[in-house]
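Progress note, sequence design subtask.
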């Protein structure tokens, strides 16, 4: 009886679900949802190929240094790198004296305490310090940016869908709003139209506005496109500075597992290869006639027992 009741209850749930699905499909077909403004005008990130892409990718140190220069001269005024220390720049190819000079000459000093008075103070950065934040706190950051909060860029390529391609597209995607953009979706005061941003209107003004905004030491032509690519590559490094080490370790683990698998198979062949033939010799071939004889012998032994 319990099984019958359970079956009826389950059948009722299935019928209700099927009825809801049917009417939902009918409603969707009869009155499909209208596309939103963001769905119509928002664009997916452009394609961006970096040297670090793919399982065999390696960082291009020259590009990372150029990207760091773009960050230093353009982005650092508003965006911090709170998870990166100055000494980490040695991974980009800078030597120790150069890192010390970069830290000492950084435009934002590090918060500290005056040892004589105990009052808050600032000091020059040291290689062991992390990049100082451009604002004292969130309130100060919003007050300086029309209530918009500039995000920390340490992990930005991990935090945004599309990663480096999204950043590259965002930096090069500022444009005038299209004529058919609805009035309510047009950028308001202190906002800028960018189809690669989620809601189309972003508070950050275009950071890269003209060719030659940064002068590269290696002679690379500093176009807006090139600067956007370089700083995007640099922020891939800040998000995962040990990327190359992780991939090297992964290949080493795969090689170890491959060798271990081969050794395990050879051990199996060496230890167990003769067990089947010995079992056949002990019990006889497992053909139908032999199996019938063994079953008959087993029954007789059971009767005698």
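Output:
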């Amino acid at each position: 009886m319990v099984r019958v009741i359970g079956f009826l209850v389950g059948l009722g749930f299935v019928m209700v679900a099927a009825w809801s699905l049917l009417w939902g499909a009918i409603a969707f077909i009869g009155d499909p949802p209208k596309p939103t403004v963001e769905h119509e005008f928002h664009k997916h990130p452009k394609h961006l190929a970096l040297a670090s892409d793919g399982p065999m990718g390696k960082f291009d140190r020259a590009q990372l240094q150029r990207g760091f220069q773009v960050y230093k001269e353009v982005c650092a005024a508003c965006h911090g790198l709170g998870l990166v220390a100055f000494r980490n720049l040695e991974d980009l190819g800078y030597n120790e004296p150069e890192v010390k000079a970069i830290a000492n000459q950084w435009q934002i000093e590090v918060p500290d305490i005056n040892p004589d008075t105990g009052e808050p103070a600032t000091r020059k950065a040291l290689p062991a310090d992390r990049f100082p934040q451009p604002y004292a706190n969130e309130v100060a950051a919003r007050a300086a940016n029309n209530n918009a909060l500039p995000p920390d860029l340490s992990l930005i390529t991990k935090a945004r869908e599309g990663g480096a391609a999204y950043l590259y597209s965002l930096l090069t995607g500022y444009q005038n709003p299209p004529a058919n953009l609805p009035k309510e979706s047009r950028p308001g005061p202190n906002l800028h139209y960018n189809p690669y941003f989620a809601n189309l209107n972003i508070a950050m003004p275009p950071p890269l506005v003209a060719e030659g905004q940064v002068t590269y030491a290696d002679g690379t032509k500093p176009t807006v496109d090139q600067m956007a690519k370089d700083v995007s590559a640099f922020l891939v490094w800040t998000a995962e500075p040990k990327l190359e080490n992780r991939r090297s370790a992964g290949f080493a683990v795969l090689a170890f597992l491959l060798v271990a698998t081969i050794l395990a198979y050879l051990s199996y062949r060496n230890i167990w290869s003769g067990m089947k033939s010995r079992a056949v010799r002990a019990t006889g071939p497992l053909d139908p006639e032999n199996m019938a004889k063994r079953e008959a012998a087993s029954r007789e032994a059971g009767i005698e027992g």
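Strands lie at 110-113, 120-123, 192-193, 201-202. Work on this subtask will continue into the next period as scheduled.
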